[in-house]
Design brief:
Blueprint lengths: L5 E8 L6 E8 L4 E7 L2 H16 L7 H10 L9 H20 L4 H4 L8 E6 L29 H7 L1 H10 L4 E4 L6 H4 L6 H18 L4 E5 L6 H11 L6 E3 L7 H9 L4 E4 L5 H10 L5 E4 L1 H4 L1 H14 L4 E3 L5 H13 L6 E3 L1 H4 L2 H5 L6 E2 L2 E2 L13 H4 L5 E6 L1
Helix pairs in contact: 1-3, 2-3, 3-13, 5-6, 6-8, 8-9, 11-13
Amino acid sequence: MSNAVIEQITTIRNPEYPHIVWLEIKSSDGHVGLGETSFSTDAVESLIHGEFSEYLIGKDPYKMDLHWDQLARKIRVIRGRGVDGSAVSAVDMSLWDLFAKKVDQPMFQVLGGLSRDRIRVYNTCAGSSYGVKRKDFRTEAGSVDHRPGSLYEDQHAFMTDAGALADNLLSEGFTAMKIWPFDVFSNESNGQFISSSQLDEGTEPFIKIREKVGRKIDVMVEMHGLWNLVSAIRIAKSVEPTAPFWFEDPVPMDNIDTLAEFRRSTHIATTASELSALRWSFREMFEKRAMTICMLDISWVGGISEAKRISGMAHAYHLPVAPHDCVGPVTLMFSLHLSLNIPNAIIQEIVRAYNATWYKDIVSVLPKIENGYAFPPTGSGVGTQLLETFRNNKNTTSMVSSL
Ligand SMILES: [Mg+2]
Protein backbone atom coordinates (compact mmCIF):
# COMPACT_ATOMS: atom_id res chain seq x y z
CA MET A 1 0.00 0.00 0.00
CA SER A 2 1.32 3.45 -0.76
CA ASN A 3 0.15 6.82 0.42
CA ALA A 4 1.17 8.50 -2.82
CA VAL A 5 -1.40 9.98 -5.16
CA ILE A 6 -1.37 11.09 -8.79
CA GLU A 7 -0.79 14.80 -8.54
CA GLN A 8 -0.39 15.99 -12.10
CA ILE A 9 -1.00 14.79 -15.67
CA THR A 10 0.74 16.65 -18.48
CA THR A 11 0.46 16.12 -22.22
CA ILE A 12 3.19 17.48 -24.49
CA ARG A 13 3.03 18.13 -28.22
CA ASN A 14 5.10 19.74 -30.96
CA PRO A 15 3.83 20.61 -34.46
CA GLU A 16 7.01 19.19 -36.01
CA TYR A 17 5.65 15.78 -34.98
CA PRO A 18 1.92 16.32 -35.49
CA HIS A 19 0.95 12.68 -34.92
CA ILE A 20 2.50 12.23 -31.45
CA VAL A 21 1.31 13.01 -27.90
CA TRP A 22 3.68 12.53 -24.95
CA LEU A 23 2.28 12.07 -21.47
CA GLU A 24 3.85 12.58 -18.06
CA ILE A 25 2.21 11.52 -14.80
CA LYS A 26 3.62 12.97 -11.58
CA SER A 27 3.10 11.35 -8.19
CA SER A 28 3.08 13.08 -4.80
CA ASP A 29 6.14 11.02 -3.73
CA GLY A 30 8.22 12.78 -6.38
CA HIS A 31 8.32 10.42 -9.39
CA VAL A 32 7.40 11.18 -13.00
CA GLY A 33 6.36 8.49 -15.48
CA LEU A 34 6.61 8.94 -19.24
CA GLY A 35 4.21 7.63 -21.91
CA GLU A 36 3.50 8.24 -25.59
CA THR A 37 0.90 7.57 -28.23
CA SER A 38 0.12 8.72 -31.73
CA PHE A 39 -2.62 9.71 -34.19
CA SER A 40 -5.98 11.41 -33.42
CA THR A 41 -3.91 13.66 -31.15
CA ASP A 42 -6.58 16.29 -30.37
CA ALA A 43 -9.06 13.60 -29.36
CA VAL A 44 -6.49 11.67 -27.30
CA GLU A 45 -5.42 14.81 -25.47
CA SER A 46 -8.95 15.89 -24.68
CA LEU A 47 -9.87 12.41 -23.43
CA ILE A 48 -6.82 12.35 -21.14
CA HIS A 49 -7.57 15.78 -19.66
CA GLY A 50 -11.29 15.08 -19.52
CA GLU A 51 -12.68 11.77 -18.24
CA PHE A 52 -9.28 10.18 -17.62
CA SER A 53 -7.86 12.98 -15.45
CA GLU A 54 -11.12 13.21 -13.59
CA TYR A 55 -10.71 9.55 -12.64
CA LEU A 56 -6.90 9.45 -12.14
CA ILE A 57 -6.01 12.62 -10.22
CA GLY A 58 -5.78 11.89 -6.50
CA LYS A 59 -5.61 8.10 -7.03
CA ASP A 60 -2.78 5.78 -5.90
CA PRO A 61 -0.48 5.60 -8.97
CA TYR A 62 0.77 2.11 -8.10
CA LYS A 63 -2.54 0.34 -8.78
CA MET A 64 -1.72 -0.01 -12.47
CA ASP A 65 -3.93 -3.00 -13.24
CA LEU A 66 -6.94 -1.49 -11.47
CA HIS A 67 -6.56 1.80 -13.36
CA TRP A 68 -6.24 -0.05 -16.68
CA ASP A 69 -9.48 -1.86 -16.00
CA GLN A 70 -11.35 1.23 -14.82
CA LEU A 71 -10.24 3.26 -17.84
CA ALA A 72 -10.90 0.35 -20.18
CA ARG A 73 -14.50 0.29 -18.98
CA LYS A 74 -14.81 3.68 -20.64
CA ILE A 75 -13.41 2.18 -23.85
CA ARG A 76 -16.46 0.03 -24.47
CA VAL A 77 -14.05 -2.44 -26.09
CA ILE A 78 -13.78 -1.26 -29.63
CA ARG A 79 -12.24 -3.85 -31.90
CA GLY A 80 -9.67 -1.83 -33.80
CA ARG A 81 -7.08 0.69 -32.83
CA GLY A 82 -8.69 3.91 -31.66
CA VAL A 83 -8.59 7.06 -29.59
CA ASP A 84 -9.65 5.38 -26.35
CA GLY A 85 -7.13 2.54 -26.60
CA SER A 86 -4.36 4.98 -27.51
CA ALA A 87 -5.15 7.20 -24.52
CA VAL A 88 -5.22 4.18 -22.18
CA SER A 89 -1.89 3.07 -23.67
CA ALA A 90 -0.17 6.37 -22.87
CA VAL A 91 -1.54 6.35 -19.30
CA ASP A 92 -0.52 2.72 -18.74
CA MET A 93 3.01 3.36 -20.06
CA SER A 94 3.39 6.37 -17.74
CA LEU A 95 2.16 4.48 -14.69
CA TRP A 96 4.51 1.53 -15.29
CA ASP A 97 7.45 3.88 -15.87
CA LEU A 98 6.52 5.65 -12.64
CA PHE A 99 6.39 2.37 -10.70
CA ALA A 100 9.71 1.10 -12.14
CA LYS A 101 11.35 4.39 -11.15
CA LYS A 102 9.91 4.15 -7.65
CA VAL A 103 11.44 0.70 -7.14
CA ASP A 104 14.54 1.87 -9.03
CA GLN A 105 14.57 -1.00 -11.53
CA PRO A 106 14.68 -1.12 -15.33
CA MET A 107 11.33 -1.79 -17.01
CA PHE A 108 12.41 -5.25 -18.20
CA GLN A 109 13.00 -6.21 -14.56
CA VAL A 110 9.56 -5.15 -13.32
CA LEU A 111 8.05 -7.05 -16.26
CA GLY A 112 9.74 -10.24 -15.02
CA GLY A 113 13.40 -9.92 -15.98
CA LEU A 114 15.49 -10.72 -19.03
CA SER A 115 14.66 -13.75 -21.17
CA ARG A 116 17.68 -12.92 -23.35
CA ASP A 117 20.61 -10.52 -23.17
CA ARG A 118 19.99 -9.08 -26.64
CA ILE A 119 17.23 -9.13 -29.27
CA ARG A 120 17.64 -9.36 -33.03
CA VAL A 121 16.35 -6.27 -34.86
CA TYR A 122 15.17 -5.60 -38.39
CA ASN A 123 15.32 -2.29 -40.20
CA THR A 124 12.08 -0.83 -41.48
CA CYS A 125 13.20 0.93 -44.62
CA ALA A 126 11.55 4.33 -44.11
CA GLY A 127 13.32 7.60 -44.81
CA SER A 128 13.85 10.05 -41.97
CA SER A 129 10.74 12.04 -42.86
CA TYR A 130 8.39 9.09 -43.63
CA GLY A 131 5.09 9.70 -41.93
CA VAL A 132 6.49 12.23 -39.51
CA LYS A 133 6.36 15.85 -40.48
CA ARG A 134 3.56 15.43 -43.00
CA LYS A 135 -0.16 15.50 -42.33
CA ASP A 136 -1.07 13.85 -45.65
CA PHE A 137 0.91 10.70 -44.78
CA ARG A 138 -2.06 8.43 -44.25
CA THR A 139 -3.99 9.44 -47.35
CA GLU A 140 -1.18 8.69 -49.81
CA ALA A 141 -0.16 5.06 -49.49
CA GLY A 142 3.37 4.40 -50.67
CA SER A 143 4.28 8.04 -51.22
CA VAL A 144 7.96 8.81 -50.77
CA ASP A 145 9.20 12.03 -49.21
CA HIS A 146 12.70 11.91 -50.65
CA ARG A 147 15.26 14.41 -49.43
CA PRO A 148 18.36 13.80 -51.53
CA GLY A 149 21.54 13.80 -49.50
CA SER A 150 19.88 13.27 -46.13
CA LEU A 151 20.85 10.27 -44.03
CA TYR A 152 19.24 6.87 -44.71
CA GLU A 153 16.69 7.61 -47.42
CA ASP A 154 15.83 3.91 -47.21
CA GLN A 155 12.35 4.09 -48.74
CA HIS A 156 13.63 5.82 -51.85
CA ALA A 157 16.46 3.27 -51.87
CA PHE A 158 14.18 0.22 -51.88
CA MET A 159 12.04 1.74 -54.63
CA THR A 160 15.10 2.36 -56.82
CA ASP A 161 17.90 -0.08 -55.94
CA ALA A 162 16.79 -2.54 -53.27
CA GLY A 163 19.87 -4.73 -53.88
CA ALA A 164 22.27 -1.93 -52.97
CA LEU A 165 20.15 -1.10 -49.91
CA ALA A 166 20.29 -4.73 -48.71
CA ASP A 167 24.05 -4.70 -49.22
CA ASN A 168 24.35 -1.48 -47.21
CA LEU A 169 22.24 -2.88 -44.36
CA LEU A 170 24.36 -6.03 -44.22
CA SER A 171 27.48 -3.85 -44.02
CA GLU A 172 25.97 -2.22 -40.89
CA GLY A 173 25.24 -5.64 -39.38
CA PHE A 174 21.50 -5.86 -40.09
CA THR A 175 20.24 -9.29 -41.18
CA ALA A 176 16.59 -8.38 -41.75
CA MET A 177 14.72 -5.56 -43.52
CA LYS A 178 11.11 -4.55 -44.21
CA ILE A 179 9.81 -2.90 -47.41
CA TRP A 180 6.37 -2.01 -48.92
CA PRO A 181 6.74 -1.66 -52.70
CA PHE A 182 3.09 -2.59 -53.39
CA ASP A 183 1.50 0.24 -51.35
CA VAL A 184 1.74 2.75 -54.17
CA PHE A 185 -0.48 0.60 -56.40
CA SER A 186 -3.31 0.49 -53.85
CA ASN A 187 -4.39 4.10 -54.38
CA GLU A 188 -5.79 3.55 -57.88
CA SER A 189 -8.49 1.06 -56.80
CA ASN A 190 -8.46 1.58 -53.02
CA GLY A 191 -6.85 -1.84 -52.70
CA GLN A 192 -9.52 -3.66 -54.73
CA PHE A 193 -7.35 -4.61 -57.70
CA ILE A 194 -3.70 -5.04 -58.70
CA SER A 195 -2.65 -5.63 -62.31
CA SER A 196 -0.10 -8.18 -63.52
CA SER A 197 2.38 -5.48 -64.51
CA GLN A 198 2.01 -3.83 -61.08
CA LEU A 199 2.67 -7.20 -59.46
CA ASP A 200 5.85 -7.52 -61.51
CA GLU A 201 6.95 -4.00 -60.63
CA GLY A 202 6.27 -4.50 -56.92
CA THR A 203 8.08 -7.85 -56.90
CA GLU A 204 11.21 -6.46 -58.56
CA PRO A 205 12.84 -5.13 -55.36
CA PHE A 206 12.63 -8.62 -53.79
CA ILE A 207 14.29 -10.15 -56.86
CA LYS A 208 17.01 -7.47 -56.81
CA ILE A 209 17.73 -8.22 -53.14
CA ARG A 210 18.13 -11.95 -53.82
CA GLU A 211 20.31 -11.26 -56.88
CA LYS A 212 22.59 -8.94 -54.92
CA VAL A 213 22.94 -10.62 -51.51
CA GLY A 214 21.32 -14.03 -51.93
CA ARG A 215 19.64 -15.30 -48.76
CA LYS A 216 21.90 -13.41 -46.35
CA ILE A 217 19.06 -11.07 -45.37
CA ASP A 218 15.48 -11.78 -44.29
CA VAL A 219 12.92 -9.61 -46.03
CA MET A 220 9.54 -8.67 -44.55
CA VAL A 221 6.68 -7.60 -46.83
CA GLU A 222 4.65 -4.75 -45.30
CA MET A 223 1.14 -4.48 -46.77
CA HIS A 224 -0.38 -1.96 -44.32
CA GLY A 225 -3.88 -3.55 -44.40
CA LEU A 226 -4.50 -1.93 -47.78
CA TRP A 227 -5.73 -4.88 -49.86
CA ASN A 228 -8.82 -7.00 -50.36
CA LEU A 229 -8.34 -10.76 -50.05
CA VAL A 230 -7.85 -11.65 -53.71
CA SER A 231 -5.31 -8.87 -54.28
CA ALA A 232 -3.40 -9.77 -51.11
CA ILE A 233 -3.20 -13.41 -52.25
CA ARG A 234 -2.04 -12.33 -55.73
CA ILE A 235 0.74 -10.26 -54.12
CA ALA A 236 1.74 -13.16 -51.86
CA LYS A 237 1.94 -15.60 -54.79
CA SER A 238 4.06 -13.12 -56.72
CA VAL A 239 6.59 -12.62 -53.90
CA GLU A 240 6.66 -16.21 -52.55
CA PRO A 241 9.40 -17.44 -54.95
CA THR A 242 11.81 -14.92 -53.33
CA ALA A 243 11.15 -16.51 -49.90
CA PRO A 244 10.21 -13.46 -47.80
CA PHE A 245 10.19 -13.78 -43.99
CA TRP A 246 6.60 -12.61 -43.48
CA PHE A 247 3.58 -10.88 -44.99
CA GLU A 248 2.41 -8.15 -42.61
CA ASP A 249 -1.19 -6.90 -42.37
CA PRO A 250 -2.19 -8.24 -45.81
CA VAL A 251 -5.87 -7.29 -45.39
CA PRO A 252 -7.78 -4.85 -43.14
CA MET A 253 -8.11 -6.16 -39.57
CA ASP A 254 -11.90 -5.85 -39.40
CA ASN A 255 -12.65 -9.39 -40.61
CA ILE A 256 -10.58 -12.06 -38.89
CA ASP A 257 -11.99 -14.89 -41.03
CA THR A 258 -10.57 -13.13 -44.09
CA LEU A 259 -7.18 -12.83 -42.40
CA ALA A 260 -7.31 -16.55 -41.54
CA GLU A 261 -8.13 -17.34 -45.17
CA PHE A 262 -5.08 -15.36 -46.28
CA ARG A 263 -2.88 -17.16 -43.77
CA ARG A 264 -4.02 -20.55 -45.06
CA SER A 265 -3.28 -19.47 -48.65
CA THR A 266 0.49 -19.20 -48.18
CA HIS A 267 3.34 -21.14 -46.56
CA ILE A 268 5.03 -17.82 -45.67
CA ALA A 269 4.28 -16.42 -42.18
CA THR A 270 1.37 -14.00 -41.72
CA THR A 271 2.10 -11.21 -39.21
CA ALA A 272 -0.74 -9.25 -37.51
CA SER A 273 -1.40 -6.72 -36.17
CA GLU A 274 -0.37 -3.27 -35.02
CA LEU A 275 -3.82 -2.25 -36.35
CA SER A 276 -5.55 -4.19 -33.56
CA ALA A 277 -5.90 -3.24 -29.92
CA LEU A 278 -6.80 -4.88 -26.61
CA ARG A 279 -6.72 -8.55 -25.61
CA TRP A 280 -10.27 -9.26 -26.85
CA SER A 281 -9.32 -8.51 -30.49
CA PHE A 282 -6.23 -10.68 -30.22
CA ARG A 283 -8.21 -13.52 -28.61
CA GLU A 284 -10.27 -13.87 -31.77
CA MET A 285 -7.18 -13.76 -34.02
CA PHE A 286 -5.50 -16.46 -31.93
CA GLU A 287 -8.56 -18.70 -31.71
CA LYS A 288 -9.15 -18.52 -35.47
CA ARG A 289 -5.47 -19.25 -36.21
CA ALA A 290 -5.48 -16.07 -38.29
CA MET A 291 -1.80 -15.21 -37.82
CA THR A 292 1.61 -16.84 -37.57
CA ILE A 293 3.46 -14.02 -35.82
CA CYS A 294 1.90 -11.57 -33.35
CA MET A 295 2.70 -7.91 -34.00
CA LEU A 296 1.58 -5.23 -31.55
CA ASP A 297 2.27 -1.59 -30.86
CA ILE A 298 2.57 -0.77 -27.17
CA SER A 299 1.31 2.80 -27.59
CA TRP A 300 -1.92 1.67 -29.30
CA VAL A 301 -2.63 -1.85 -28.06
CA GLY A 302 -3.40 -0.80 -24.46
CA GLY A 303 0.07 -0.03 -23.09
CA ILE A 304 2.94 -2.14 -21.78
CA SER A 305 0.78 -4.15 -19.36
CA GLU A 306 -1.69 -5.10 -22.11
CA ALA A 307 1.16 -5.93 -24.52
CA LYS A 308 2.59 -8.26 -21.87
CA ARG A 309 -0.82 -9.93 -21.36
CA ILE A 310 -1.36 -10.41 -25.12
CA SER A 311 2.17 -11.80 -25.50
CA GLY A 312 1.34 -14.38 -22.84
CA MET A 313 -1.85 -15.30 -24.71
CA ALA A 314 0.19 -15.67 -27.93
CA HIS A 315 2.59 -17.97 -26.12
CA ALA A 316 -0.28 -20.30 -25.24
CA TYR A 317 -0.83 -20.74 -28.99
CA HIS A 318 2.94 -21.17 -29.62
CA LEU A 319 3.00 -17.90 -31.53
CA PRO A 320 6.03 -15.60 -31.44
CA VAL A 321 5.80 -11.83 -30.90
CA ALA A 322 7.46 -9.04 -32.89
CA PRO A 323 6.86 -5.60 -31.32
CA HIS A 324 6.25 -2.60 -33.56
CA ASP A 325 8.26 0.61 -33.87
CA CYS A 326 7.73 3.42 -36.35
CA VAL A 327 5.79 6.03 -34.39
CA GLY A 328 7.91 7.53 -31.61
CA PRO A 329 11.08 7.06 -29.55
CA VAL A 330 9.40 6.39 -26.19
CA THR A 331 7.38 3.54 -27.70
CA LEU A 332 10.56 2.07 -29.17
CA MET A 333 12.21 2.03 -25.73
CA PHE A 334 9.17 0.35 -24.15
CA SER A 335 9.12 -2.19 -27.02
CA LEU A 336 12.75 -3.06 -26.44
CA HIS A 337 12.07 -3.80 -22.75
CA LEU A 338 9.18 -6.08 -23.76
CA SER A 339 11.27 -7.81 -26.46
CA LEU A 340 13.96 -8.58 -23.91
CA ASN A 341 11.48 -9.76 -21.28
CA ILE A 342 8.88 -12.01 -22.95
CA PRO A 343 10.06 -15.56 -23.68
CA ASN A 344 8.39 -15.64 -27.11
CA ALA A 345 9.80 -12.44 -28.69
CA ILE A 346 11.68 -13.15 -31.91
CA ILE A 347 12.66 -9.80 -33.36
CA GLN A 348 12.28 -6.05 -32.67
CA GLU A 349 11.44 -3.49 -35.35
CA ILE A 350 13.66 -0.40 -35.56
CA VAL A 351 14.01 2.42 -38.10
CA ARG A 352 17.67 3.37 -38.46
CA ALA A 353 16.69 6.59 -40.25
CA TYR A 354 14.67 7.69 -37.20
CA ASN A 355 17.28 6.65 -34.64
CA ALA A 356 19.87 8.68 -36.54
CA THR A 357 17.72 11.80 -36.91
CA TRP A 358 14.52 13.00 -35.23
CA TYR A 359 14.24 10.40 -32.44
CA LYS A 360 17.52 11.87 -31.16
CA ASP A 361 16.01 15.36 -31.04
CA ILE A 362 13.29 14.24 -28.59
CA VAL A 363 14.68 11.78 -26.01
CA SER A 364 17.86 11.43 -23.96
CA VAL A 365 18.54 7.73 -24.63
CA LEU A 366 17.84 5.42 -27.58
CA PRO A 367 18.56 1.68 -27.82
CA LYS A 368 22.13 0.52 -28.25
CA ILE A 369 22.12 -1.34 -31.56
CA GLU A 370 25.15 -3.27 -32.82
CA ASN A 371 25.58 -5.98 -35.44
CA GLY A 372 21.85 -6.38 -35.92
CA TYR A 373 20.97 -6.67 -32.21
CA ALA A 374 19.57 -4.30 -29.56
CA PHE A 375 20.80 -4.49 -25.97
CA PRO A 376 19.16 -3.90 -22.55
CA PRO A 377 18.76 -0.23 -21.61
CA THR A 378 20.32 0.81 -18.32
CA GLY A 379 18.81 2.96 -15.59
CA SER A 380 15.44 2.74 -13.90
CA GLY A 381 12.07 2.83 -15.62
CA VAL A 382 11.92 2.89 -19.38
CA GLY A 383 15.40 4.40 -19.34
CA THR A 384 14.83 7.52 -21.40
CA GLN A 385 13.27 10.95 -20.95
CA LEU A 386 12.25 13.95 -22.98
CA LEU A 387 15.22 16.23 -23.58
CA GLU A 388 15.22 19.68 -21.99
CA THR A 389 16.01 21.11 -25.43
CA PHE A 390 12.84 19.48 -26.74
CA ARG A 391 10.72 20.69 -23.82
CA ASN A 392 12.08 24.19 -24.22
CA ASN A 393 11.67 24.25 -27.99
CA LYS A 394 9.55 27.31 -28.81
CA ASN A 395 6.98 25.16 -30.62
CA THR A 396 6.54 22.59 -27.84
CA THR A 397 3.28 23.02 -25.96
CA SER A 398 1.89 21.30 -22.90
CA MET A 399 -1.48 20.92 -21.23
CA VAL A 400 -1.75 20.19 -17.51
CA SER A 401 -4.38 18.68 -15.20
CA SER A 402 -3.56 18.70 -11.50
CA LEU A 403 -4.91 18.31 -7.98
MG1 LIG B 1 3.37 -2.50 -39.95
